[in-house]
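Technical note accompanying the year-one report. For the benefit of new consortium partners, we illustrate the data format agreed upon in the data management plan: each record pairs a sequence with a structure-token string. No post-processing was applied to the example shown here.
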Amino acid sequence: MIMKLVATVKLLATEEQKSSLLATLTQVNAACDWLAARAFEHRSADKIMLQRLYYRQLREDFDLSAQHAVRTISKVCEVYKRDKTKLPRFDKLGAIAYDQRLYSFKNGIDRVSLLTQAGRVVIPCGVGQYHKARLEGVRGQADLVLRDGNFYLYVTVEVPSDPEVTPIGWLGVDLGIRNLAVDSDGQFHSGERTLAVRSRIGTLRSKLQSAGTKSAKRHLKKLGKKEQRFHSNTNHVISKKIVRKAKDTARGIALEDLTHIRERVTVRKTQRAHLHGWSFAQLRAFTTYKAALAGVPCVAVDPRYTSQTCPECGCVSKANRKNQSEFVCTKCGFAEHADLVGARNIAFRAEVMRPIVIDIGSEPCENDTSPSPLQAAAL
């Protein structure tokens, strides 16, 4: 099986080359802005029509190459057709697409040739070891991006993945506030240390926002990027550990279905920043694509009532959850960390999703109107 991923290539451009790339970036985006207004007038995202009407004018008025003009038309049509009630606007320094007629790698992946307003330029590349191993499978277009004064190419690559295996069980993963992820084997990922870093960043952000000076705003911008890198690195580390464990034990991965999680989950006011301040969707996306590369099946299950259901007797009751971390079953007395209970129930629900008959072997608690485990799994 072949998967498409995105590799990041830093362009080690000279000042002259940067000027050429910057001119190309601004000119193409200016052309996109102009063409978007024409598309809005016609209420049309038809590439053929817009190319017939405005291709020549784009080339003459904005001094675009033939292929840059074609990519401009495609970009405008793709953006405008999402919502034809609004006039699309394009950032003058926004990313632009380079297809394989506009760029090519030279001498393997050491240099890349790009078409600019000043003609073809050949620029040395800086590529990390992780991406370098994957750039042999370059396919399709790339995006030219300006970030922090440096130019990058986000290149689409094709990577072979391991054949998916039939799992002999499931590794359930519960996502939480204090512990970002807890698996059904009892391993806790990024607890106190990560929480301390998040709290420190949150406190510093509040102070800088209160100051409101130009220096504080510059610091806030740097802090935001630093926090983003911290989130991404932490999510990569956690997802890698989860996938490795599942592959080594021949199990699949069962994750929470995060659809509408922010509307569905209610927490105390003091915990809102932690709930809404972490990229759980990114963590799930990282886990999903790493699992696909490793040939590990990955499923999403409904997480409702997983923290209120006893994994031993099946009793479902809100009273089972004593607090954020403590679970004590009101029927059988089973006690465990609440996040671990949630992870075990998520693994169980993934098993129930299989098209086989399973004896649940449990009954709901007396005088409890909460759904049974089987009903909860079917919700």
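Partners are asked to follow this layout when depositing records. Residues 355-362, 369-379 have pLDDT under 50 and may be disordered.
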